[in-house]
Design brief:
single chain; 459 residues; alpha/beta; 14-stranded parallel sheet; 9 helices; 39 strands; binds uridine-diphosphate-N-acetylglucosamine; binds calcium ion
C-alpha cells in the first residue's frame, strides 16, 4: 500500500462570499466545509493530515481539532495562492508518505471513492488530478489537452484565451501527487499570471505530459463554494444526497427534508415534508417525525411520534413518547418512556418519569417530574425568582390541577393532589391534598341584581 498523506488548503478568505466567517467554516449539511475535506481524506486512507490555515486560523484550528485531533496545522501567513499554500502544507509533513492528496477546503461534496479512483488511475505518475465537464465552466480552471488527449496544462479563467474559455472540462482542484515531485515543483512556481499568485495548477504543466486527469461523472463533486449562490447549490445537493442515502437504508421520506451529515436514523423511520434533522440528532427505529418539525442535537428512542411543528433542541426522548403538535423541548429536556408532551408545552432542563403527561399549554423548567404524573393544562413551574433558578420536584403519581403555578423551590410528595388554579409555595407529603387559591363564594340570585345595576348605569 502506498503511504498517503493529505494536505487540505483552507487559508483563503472567501472574498467572493463577503463573509466574516472564514469561508471553510461555512457549513454544508451542518458540517463546516473544511471538515468534509478532512473526513474525505480520512476515508481515502490518508494517515497523516495537514490543514493549511490563514484567514481566521485560530477559529479554523479549533473546529478541526474537535473533529480530528490527529490533524496538524501549517500557517500560511500571507495568502499567495494555492501553490504557495500547498508548499506551506508540505513543510509540515513528515518524511513518511510517498504521495500526497491535496484537497480544497471549499469542495465539500467530493466522495472518497473518487479519490480511490484517482489513486488507481494515477499509479506512479507524478501528478493525477480530478476534472469534470460543466455546462457553465465560468470561474474554474480549464483543462488543456494535447492531440493525444493528454492533459498538459490547466489555465485559470482569468488567464484563458477565448479559445480556452470554450473548454468545458474543468479542474476540480483535487490532486494526487508524488511527494518528491511536489517539493521540487512548488519551489519553482512563478507568479506571472493575471492574479499574481503562485498557482498549484502549474504542477500539471511541469509534469510534461505525464499528468493524469480523472474526469468525474458527477460534476457536483467538483463544485466549489466561492459565492453564496454556489453555497446554496451545494447545500441543496447535500440534502438530496442525504435523503437518497437514508431511503436506501430504509427510511420513508415523504417530501423535502433536511438531514444533516452526522444524523443517525434507525430502521423504518418516517419523515414527513419539511422536517429538519440537525447536528448529531439520533432517531430510533420506527419513529415518526411529522410535518415541519425541527430536531437539533436530539435523541429519540424507538417508536416516538413527533407531531407536526415541534421544536427539539438537545432533548432526549424515551421509547413510545408522544410529542406535540407545537411542542418545544429545550436543552436537557429528558422524557421517560411513554411520556406525552402536548401542544404549546415548553419543557426545559427537566426529567419526566415514565408515563408522565403534560398535555396542554404549560411551561416546565428545572423540574423533576415523577412517573405517571399528570400536569394539567396551563401549569407553570415558576423556576426563576428574578435572581436565581430553583428546582421543582413532583413525586410519582401526582395530579397537578389545571392552571396551577408551582413556585420553586418546591417539592410535592408522591400521590399529591393539587387543586386546579393553585399557587403552590409550600411542600406537600405523600397523598396530601393541596389547595392554594381563594375559596369560592356563591351568592344566590345576585347575578340578576348585578345586571340590573349595570342597566341603570350604576356599575
Ligand atoms: C482553484 C483552481 C482552479 C480550480 C478550482 C476548483 C488554482 C490556481 N485554481 O481555483 O483551477 O478550477 O480551484 O474549485 O489553484 N487557498 C489557500 N491559500 C491561498 C489560496 C487559496 O489556502 O493562498 C485555499 C482556499 O482556502 C480554498 C482553496 O485553496 O479552500 C482553493 O482556493 P480558491 O481561491 O477557492 O481557488 P479557485 O479560484 O476556486
Ligand atoms: Ca474555490
Amino acid at each position: 500500500m502506498t503511504r498517503l498523506a493529505a494536505v487540505v488548503l483552507a487559508a483563503g478568505k472567501g472574498t467572493r462570499l463577503k463573509t466574516a466567517l472564514p469561508k471553510v467554516l461555512h457549513p454544508i449539511g451542518g458540517l463546516p466545509m473544511v471538515l468534509h475535506a478532512l473526513r474525505t481524506a480520512q476515508r481515502a486512507g490518508a494517515s497523516e493530515r495537514v490543514v493549511v490555515v490563514g484567514h481566521g486560523a485560530e477559529q479554523v484550528e479549533a473546529v478541526v481539532r474537535s473533529f480530528d485531533p490527529d490533524a496538524r496545522f501549517a500557517r500560511q501567513i500571507e495568502q499567495r495562492g494555492t501553490g504557495h499554500a500547498a508548499a506551506t502544507g508540505l513543510a509540515a509533513l513528515t518524511q513518511g508518505p510517498e504521495r500526497v492528496l491535496i484537497l480544497s477546503g471549499d469542495c465539500p461534496l467530493l466522495r472518497p471513492e473518487s479519490l480511490h479512483a484517482l489513486r488507481a488511475a494515477t499509479g506512479d505518475r507524478p501528478v493525477g488530478f480530478l476534472s469534470t465537464e460543466l455546462e457553465d465552466p465560468t470561474g474554474y480552471g480549464r483543462v488543456v489537452r494535447d492531440e493525444q488527449r493528454r492533459p498538459i496544462r490547466v489555465v485559470e479563467h482569468k488567464d484563458a484565451s477565448s479559445d480556452e474559455l470554450r473548454i468545458r472540462e474543468v479542474n476540480a482542484g483535487i490532486y494526487d501527487v508524488d511527494l518528491a515531485f511536489l517539493r521540487d515543483t512548488t519551489a519553482q512556481l512563478q507568479s506571472d499570471n493575471a492574479q499574481g499568485e503562485l498557482y498549484l495548477t502549474e504542477v500539471v504543466e511541469r509534469a510534461a505530459g505525464e499528468a493524469q486527469a480523472f474526469c468525474l461523472a458527477d460534476p457536483s463533486e467538483a463544485m466549489g463554494a466561492n459565492t453564496r449562490a454556489e453555497l446554496a447549490a451545494l447545500q441543496e445537493e447535500a440534502w438530496d444526497r442525504a435523503a437518497g442515502r437514508w431511503m436506501t437504508e430504509g427510511t420513508t421520506i415523504l417530501g423535502r427534508c433536511h438531514i444533516d451529515e452526522e444524523v443517525q436514523l434507525g430502521q423504518d423511520v418516517t419523515l414527513h415534508p419539511g422536517v429538519h434533522l440537525r447536528g448529531r440528532t439520533r432517531v430510533g427505529d420506527g419513529c415518526v417525525v411529522d410535518v415541519g418539525s425541527v430536531l437539533s442535537d436530539s435523541e429519540l428512542a424507538e417508536g416516538v411520534v413527533v407531531h407536526p411543528y415541534s421544536i427539539l433542541e438537545q432533548a432526549k426522548v424515551g421509547p413510545g413518547a408522544q410529542i406535540g403538535p407545537f411542542a418545544r423541548l429545550r436543552p436537557a429536556a429528558d422524557l421517560g418512556p411513554g411520556t406525552k408532551v402536548g401542544n404549546f408545552v415548553e419543557v426545559k432542563k427537566s426529567r419526566l418519569g415514565p408515563g408522565a403527561k403534560i398535555n396542554h399549554l404549560s411551561y416546565v423548567g428545572d423540574a423533576e417530574v415523577g412517573a405517571e404524573v399528570n400536569v394539567g393544562a396551563g401549569t407553570i413551574t415558576c423556576n426563576y425568582d428574578g435572581f436565581a433558578k430553583h428546582l421543582t420536584r413532583i413525586g410519582d403519581g401526582t395530579f397537578v390541577g389545571s392552571n396551577s403555578t408551582l413556585v420553586a423551590p418546591v417539592e410535592l410528595g408522591p400521590g399529591t393532589y393539587v387543586a386546579a388554579g393553585s399557587t403552590v409555595t409550600e411542600n406537600s407529603a405523600r397523598d396530601d391534598l393541596v389547595f392554594g387559591r381563594a375559596r369560592q363564594e356563591v351568592k344566590p340570585g345576585r347575578a340578576k341584581a348585578v345586571r340590573e345595576a349595570a342597566r341603570r348605569g350604576k356599575i
